[in-house]
């Protein structure tokens, strides 16, 4: 492989890295899907423990939602740094940094939980959120909507193992063991990130430009706004359900194993439909999937609020996951329907979604 000698300068060594077209690199897509899957497994373990641990160690009742909200705030704060680092330093450095934060966050939350130290627990949740924000950007690296769905499908495959991993970690030592296991999964994601191609994706920097006035650009901006606003509503409801579900199960006297299992199956429901959408994309039209997801999400959340039995609560959480998945499939396909958006637009999209999720958790 030859390189332009004019750019082979010590101050610009990053320019030597070849660009990669993810549309033709199946191996790269598989690695991205595996990295996203590890992030989903770590998320399952963290989400199964944060609300219940906060219920035990939070100084005041109104602070119970803080750890989950900080996790989501951290994910939102990571949106723009993740986009900037992927472009400026390559995916290897960006995703390795995110996974490193996840390792520290898992260890710190385990420490805060075992020692009853709520500030340390909240700081660890924030770090886990920063790692999750980097992990979510895996789905945007694939240059097309179908590639992004394939990465989401990797999350579905990982979520299949979530119930087993959650139960095994709880059997090994309870909540602290689950958080330590989340740290180990982030460590595995770190090693995977170090094996990713150190390249830079080709992106369309002109999408959603404020100066664009032609019809195609207007439709792209409209699709971006619709996907972002509808996706933000879906994430807000999902975050409220993630906090309300485990706490409602605990108040109903459900066993710890049932609560962890319900969260794991909820995660599987969140990503399972993406595997079908990646295999049969024509059966998931963007706008129809988005509308159906939002309608079903409202009904599932209402059922979650009204249910009083553990079985119905667990079923409602799974329904929330499926509805959220449909809404996100529609939003992702709508976002990429008129071509790949710029990294800035994708970061803004994630920031709005995760900010709405944090607001939903705090509002509960």
UniProtKB/TrEMBL annotation:
<protein>
    <recommendedName>
        <fullName>MFS transporter</fullName>
    </recommendedName>
</protein>
<keyword id="KW-0472">Membrane</keyword>
<feature type="transmembrane region" description="Helical">
    <location>
        <begin position="118"/>
        <end position="138"/>
    </location>
</feature>
<dbReference type="InterPro" id="IPR036259">
    <property type="entry name" value="MFS_trans_sf"/>
</dbReference>
<feature type="transmembrane region" description="Helical">
    <location>
        <begin position="224"/>
        <end position="242"/>
    </location>
</feature>
<feature type="transmembrane region" description="Helical">
    <location>
        <begin position="171"/>
        <end position="194"/>
    </location>
</feature>
<feature type="transmembrane region" description="Helical">
    <location>
        <begin position="310"/>
        <end position="332"/>
    </location>
</feature>
<keyword id="KW-1133">Transmembrane helix</keyword>
<feature type="transmembrane region" description="Helical">
    <location>
        <begin position="64"/>
        <end position="86"/>
    </location>
</feature>
<feature type="transmembrane region" description="Helical">
    <location>
        <begin position="248"/>
        <end position="272"/>
    </location>
</feature>
<feature type="transmembrane region" description="Helical">
    <location>
        <begin position="145"/>
        <end position="165"/>
    </location>
</feature>
<keyword id="KW-0812">Transmembrane</keyword>
<feature type="transmembrane region" description="Helical">
    <location>
        <begin position="93"/>
        <end position="112"/>
    </location>
</feature>
<feature type="transmembrane region" description="Helical">
    <location>
        <begin position="32"/>
        <end position="58"/>
    </location>
</feature>
<feature type="transmembrane region" description="Helical">
    <location>
        <begin position="284"/>
        <end position="304"/>
    </location>
</feature>
